[in-house]
Amino acid sequence: MQPPGYSKSLCQEILSHGHEIGFHFDAISNAGKKKTLKSMSRLWSFTELERQLKTLQKHTGAFPLYTNKNHYTRWEGRTEFLEWCEELGIRVDQTKGPSKCGTQGFPFGSCHPWQAMNIDGKLIGCLEISFQSQDFGLQGPEDTMDILLDGVVKAAGVAHVIFHPAHATKPRVNALMHEFITKCKELGASFMKSRDIGEWVFKRKLAIAKGIQDLDGASIKERDPRKKDWVPITTNS
What we know:
The protein is an alpha/beta fold. The chain is built from 8 helices and 9 strands. The protein has a 4-stranded mixed sheet with strand order 1-2-4-3. The protein has a 3-stranded antiparallel sheet with strand order 7-8-9.
């Protein structure tokens, strides 16, 4: 969702049905009709990201926004955007994937959620969940659906496909969206929100066991974004 977003009442209704509302950072639309390198560069900044996020939270009721996907999947630099997300409390990004015609599958090498490292070699506290395709029958060739699902199943990964609301009502896209969901169910997939995936992945990484034979003295740690380091939160003795 881009700022200003939906009304507070509509957002609450969406959430009450168990859905997730994500942030949609837009570093493109306000660059002017004649988009220049200067105008585009101005929008790609921590300041603009923070401004849009606060505007959206204020208008919609300031509920926590856990996840983001960039408009047009715009990306610059290596890891700076993930570090911005971490600082603002966004724990999952979904921007990386085959967003241009002619690309499908796994251009970033994985269907598993992953964390990048910063320049100091420390893991950034924002998880990336890459996507594999979008809008089957329109931008995503429909004959790639089974191939992509087969690849994800073999890797025991996340099948992440985008269906835009603007296209999901088109007959062929709508039919293939239902077919995709049906096939995922037949394969035994668990349907999860990005928060569910993120919390599961981060919790798996929290446990640090000492005394392997009986787990005596196992400690639990979490990464404190403010200190950029791991801090103990529970100790069993």
